[in-house]
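Protein in question reproduced for absentees:

***
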Amino acid sequence: LGGMELRRAVEDQGAAMTRYRSTGLRMATRHCPRALDFFEAGTPHDRSIFETGIAAHAILQAVAERTNAERRSLSDAEIEQHANATAEALIRDPRRFDGTEEPPLSPDATFEGRELAIDWLLGVERPSPGAEIEVGLALDRSGKPVPYGDPSAYYTGILDQVTVARRTDEETSARVLTIRDYKTSWAADDAELETIQRKGQAVLARPHYLAGVDVLRLEVVNLRTRRIHSRELYFEDDLDAVLDGWQADLWSTLRALDEQKARGQRPARPGAGRMGCPFVLACDHAQDYLETARVPNTAELRAVAYSAAVATAERLSEIVRLDVGDGSIPVPGGVVGFVGKERRQAREDAHVTLSEAWPGADSESVRGLLRAMNPSVMSVEKVAKALHPTRQQKGEREALIASALQSVIVPQFGVHRQVEQETVSHEQPASQV
């Protein structure tokens, strides 16, 4: 089909086209479009890599729902009781997700997920009543909200936790919509806040929750590192325009996937995206890539190969450091060795600046405490945000950060692209910058 004919064919199919889920979209973007074909077809795959996360989510859900039912925070004993009961049920019973029955979870993965959930609930954040849990939302092809199970649903997602609450401090009061996603991957960090899946959650929530909201807060909780990664967007900074752009990007992606499917099969994209893909064993393209790239075709052999490669790299690093001395060696596309990198760090007197900036806190004892704590870039930014939280106070916030931080050039050893070579002085070794 030509481009115009293909578009017309896609539009004519209307509601018969794929109902996209956030999970499926992640398959297509993280791995490749063919992975989405396998996902939609219900191709059998190894679910063990997801079981720890499933267990942790189920326990967090059970405790949060019980908290809402009791209208109070639960005790440590109650949290552990509900966590244990949920874990036992996950091991004992099949589970249903989005209408599909899945087998019981393995005990090892379930107990690992349980410990991650309990560590978070008891060690970081005990849930309070009021949050909506496992919220299923859907939009039709025109972007209008429809019930999650409606046949006209075009894009759907289940949000781990949604909260609408008023946030008040000494000078401001704002109604905040918080959309939270729990992750059990070690790699989950701030980058998760920029994915099309995270933006898609905001697009889904927009017609359901955003009326009267001053701040949209996106959160990703890494249960392993016990960190909350967050991003806030403000209505006064034209939040509607931002969400319009996100929805346009999301719909453009979905239309592209529609058109790929209309051609018969979505294309495979073998390469780094096959790592972690649950359908790698069912995909001929992935197997061909493994053979061509001479990458072992089992997880165990890949782990052995990786450990050998790391050991080799570490040994080579010691030798190459001696080769480069204080400089670098040109290689195709860049250099190997030292280059000067600009980094921000706290000034020597940052503890004094922060003590003076915090009302009523400036004293020798406070200065001594802050000096002993050795303020980091992140802690300085957090203090500045706490003192100047509103968008109108952006100038004061940036001024405080600038007064407490400084830019320095530090040597960094590694493989650097050609564009980075310009930061190295040919007359002065990087280690002396």
Observations:
- Residues 82 and 380 are 39 Å apart (CA to CA).
- The longest strand covers residues 155-168.
- The two ends are 60 Å apart (CA to CA).
